[in-house]
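In keeping with the milestone schedule agreed at the kick-off meeting, the structural modelling team has produced records for the first pair of proteins. Each record is given below as a sequence line and a structure-token line. The laboratory manager (R.T.) confirmed that both were archived under the project's standard naming scheme.
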Amino acid sequence: MAISKALNAGLQQAMMKNEKVLMFGEDVAELGGVFRVTEGLYKEFGQSRIFNTPIAESGIVGTAIGLAMRGYRPVVEIQFDGFVFPAFNQITSQLAKLTYRSEGAMQMPVVIRIPYGGGIGAVEHHSESPEAYFAHTPGLRVVTPSNPNDAYWMMQQAIESSDPVIMLEPKRRYWQKGPVNLDTAPMPLHNARVMLEGTQVTLLAYGPMVTAALQAAEIGAEEGVSIEVIDLRSLSPIDYPTIMASVKKTSRAVIVHEAPTNVSLSSEIAARISNEAFYNLEAPVIRVGGFDTPYPPAKLEEAFLPDADRILEAIDRSLAY
């Protein structure tokens, strides 16, 4: 099953289980969204459960907040990552704070689906990586699947959460296929997963970069380098116990993501590793990311986005210490 189809199946299951689950956004009904993630749901559940909205992201999230106040579990789609910023005030000033503001009396079970990242030949506003903004905001949970099985189960787990969840969907991987276990959830929503065990260096990745990390590990193995790959899965909260256990074993860490490294998820993770595993480290924590520039034109994006070569160059630097 492809990641897009797994997300669709997860949404379908959640809507079947709970009639309070609603899905809405721009062109998500009859069309099924620009990436067809909601394809077929309109025919199955009708316009009272899945419906289109105007091109007004602030209104989309504001409507979701109101519906959550009335006992619904809304799932909304932001059509592209760069379109989320008109809704930023609603998300960070209202959605993230209402449960705390009401001392827990008002739950906000809202899921905001955001296709994110580059690699599809699009331009800025269609290829952003805004995860750090949301992970920085207390009151929001932020998760991102990297494979179809996680996409299927994390969607359902996010919808079941009583807190607002930002579901970042790696759009360049929407058509990546893999097995899906329809019977048992693999792990809790906020646990990291060791994708590949190794002994010489810990490679941390999430979302679209997990595939690149595994490719780098495969090439490294052919060259005699043992790389442990961890899929973070959750960006807020972060599963630091899994990270620390790996780093203390390998004594080295490399972090990779598509977003620029300045004031990023990798900045915080590197700081925590340095604080909690300082005496275990044989080398500085090295970060690999996009460059500190606006997203480039499509013909330059492969030079902007990290790949296996850039990851392996960072691993070589780490091992050289």
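The second protein of the pair:
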Amino acid sequence: MAREQDHSYPTDVFGLPEGLLAAIVAALLLVGAFALHVFATPMPPAERWGSLTAFSVLALGLTLPGCAALYDGLGRVVRRDRRALAALLAVAPTLYAAYALAVRELTAVGLLSAILLTVVPALAFGLARERRQPALADAVALTYLGLTLGLRLVPPLTLPQQGGLVGFFSLATAPLLLILFAARGWPGLGFTWRLSGRELRDALAAGLLATVLALGANTLLYGIRPAGGLPSASSFIMSIINGYFFVALPAELLLRGGAQNGLARALAGRAGPRAPWLALAAATALSALAGIAPGGWPLGPVAGGIAGLAAGWSYIRTGKLTASALASGLVVLGVSLT
């Protein structure tokens, strides 16, 4: 592997690396909102502090890589020192074991599932680490993660256990993928909190149009239903946080950063300028398949496909996962409130 060069990064008005302040604010927002929910919910102290600890660690793992200086530094460390990579990858199974033990849900099958969810993709990405272009081993890693979560082959453990806000494994997958992409040296990921006005505008426009289409399809199938009571301000804010950070971002890391980005790079030599659009079509089909669930919402595949199309177009326009997650998150929010 070629020798990696040190990089200089732009700073903000406070002299901090660009994106670091936004990452810290996002982490505080997530942990603060979660803490309010946890302390307002009656539960045993062990469950309360276990869930708060596990969530805080995962929230930092999700938000801090949005600062390019931190994420690129992480990549240089884990590519040079496999012990550092192994230590970071061990965090997810360790957190699962600690939290599951605190809520008396720890099982041998659950622990094995947590280990396999981490080890199998890590080994697959590791097999392809000497190749700059996406390889079959990369596809195996991403497929394994997608099928494991989509088919619910991991324990349904939520944070907190009673009245849970988010599934442990669905949230843990996001920082896990970020670590694996950093170790792989995966380019073009676009995980950054720095969005321009144009990028925000494009993502919002795509998301709003997709939301209208998804709700229109729902109306055609079920008709116009009487509107329920308006949600409280706190419930609405929590719905925004849930839809963006807990649903859209993890899915976008897998579908856009992994599938669409990887396919576009793999097809670039053969399809030329059509490669991004062919990758968009394939990733949109995967988004639709992800909406299929036994006994689930009949319009799940339609809404998933519409959200995937909007997110994929936003990703092509902006090159940023945080923007594409905004587009798909709007669809999640709109569907969840109907």
